[in-house]
Amino acid sequence: MLTPVVSQLMPLLKAADETALDLAGLQLWCQHVRAVRGWYLRLSFDGRELQVMAQLERGQVSVAAGLSFNCTQFDQPFSHVAFSAKSIVLQQLAQYPELSHPQYLTWIASASAQTELWVEPLYLNGKLQGLWATQAVAGQTCPSSDTQAIKQLMLLRIEQLKQNRQIQVNHSSLVSSFNALHADVLTGKHKKILAQTIIGESEQIQKLQDKIIIAARSQLSVLVQGETGVGKELVAKAIHQLSDREQRPFIALNCAAIPDSLLESELFGFVKGAFSGAAHCSKGLLGQSHSGVLFLDEIGDMPLTIQAKLLRVLETRKYRQLGGSEELSCDFKLITATHHHLPLLIKQQRFRSDLFYRLNSFPILVVPLRQRKADIELLSQYFIDQYNRANQCRVLGISEAAIEQLNTLSFNGNIRELKNIIELACVHCGDGEEIHSIDLSNTEFPSAADSEEQDSQSPAEPAHKPGEISNLKAAVEQFEEQIIKQRLLLCDGNKSKAAQTLGVPRRTFTYICQRLELNNSE
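The chain above was modelled as a monomer; its predicted structure follows.
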């Protein structure tokens, strides 16, 4: 069982922080000097003020706030003690007119003529830590071995708390340094991984790789924007590869490649018997991507009705299969991509603004190849190496003259166009040789700019002159068919690109092709 003296010391010994120590120290000190009123003043961090941190009134200690005394002003006794480093005892307190500080006078206002003030400094290693100021009946307060022991214990605890605080600061600094070092090592590792898929050394590619690394560490939805052929899906796969979901599924869906009637069932899944032909249940891509990454390519082509349902999934993380009544939970990182300018689609009321803000939490822009031509040589060698592995060939590389020739192209088809050019050049290049300009001359890839120029110089002519037309509907359809065929030819059968150059939605373009029986053009 603890003795009374030890039990009185326990609050001081158990104090876990400075505030608790201030209160416990003042309480113990006032008990031993039989004080009726007391303050504990602590020196501020800048050493300019003595701040009242704890107070004792009617035997109860409490935290004090808002009281402070300037150390350079001597209209109160506390500054005198702080500078002299010696305790003082004042009796008949009203007889010191020079001590006129308003807050001090308020504190001693209720003191009787028999009350004396004892101010005791606390110095540690020659530095002032604080002061005890107590009011007690005259003659009852005097230094003793007990008060000296309490003072030494208080200073010891102050030192311990300072050391603990310094240990915590050092620990936090060490943890921060370790985390920074770990992040640097991890970033370096990720950079090496990205160098195998996101090819290039240009400033644009360096910034892109940095953004991919940051996006992989976050759970925010990512919106990848860029022209057709820049490698948006490669960016999405790289984010998945570097994320903590790397071992989880990566589920991809091209919203422009699936008819509207099938897109919803493909995305949300369905239960058995939900519609004609639903002979079994389907989890849908939302279910398949649970705990992994869902990549929705060409999100700008998603119908408005499905956009609304996708928005609800992102807000609630719940969805319902077609024909089902049970709400299912889903946890996935969403990455979307588009070549459209979504704010323009919002103005045209073809895309929901609220969904856009959900998707655009972490935007990534992939610049076109024509804006980073410094990477053409590296990309060309990369595609040559790919071709060699796939075809067991030994094309040695590409000449400087050939690179210079490639730099003159606009590359409206971006990396995909460059890959096609290099692969065709490899076919014409002999085994054991490098690609020369002569090998590139066998490639003819009209750019979009060339297509537009050709369109302006050679517009499609109608099959009949206006005076010869007898059936307007047939003539319009014939002229429409001629334009569609010509544009598909210029775009190598790529319907998305043809629709884009004509300024019509892809679905509308596809419908026209079906009506004109041009479905085999791709």
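Residues 445-449, 451-462 have pLDDT under 50 and may be disordered.
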